[in-house]
Amino acid sequence: MVLPRTQRGYVERMSESSSRRPSQQDGILRARLCGTAMHHAKWRELTQQETAAAVAALRELAAGRADLLAEQAGLLIGASEGTLHQPLKHSAAQLLIAAGANPAQIPRWIEEGRRRRQGTLRHAITA
Questions:
Q1: How many contiguous H segments (helices) and E segments (strands) does the chain have?
Q2: Is residue 85 within 8 Å of residue 52, measured between CB atoms?
């Protein structure tokens, strides 16, 4: 069956958008990992059941991407240092680490989180 020209273009655009570039897919996964970790994080210590559920959800979502788990953990730690939200963000980071973050990559991302926070502070002061 041959589709009319207008429908062919629509179908082609739909197939192009569904096959996102890897960097776009990674960006979406980054956001989902961070959002899931923050959803499960609490201002108090998590119970064993809460921790197990959070770690299982993050592992499933990450699908072996220890690099992205480490990135998000490090960014949360570095960017939250000295803020009121530091305990909550560290709780989320610990979940990402427990889910299998690559420990060798975390320090680099902590530094990047600090750098980004400083850039945000400088921008806020000059604005």
A1: 6, 0
A2: no
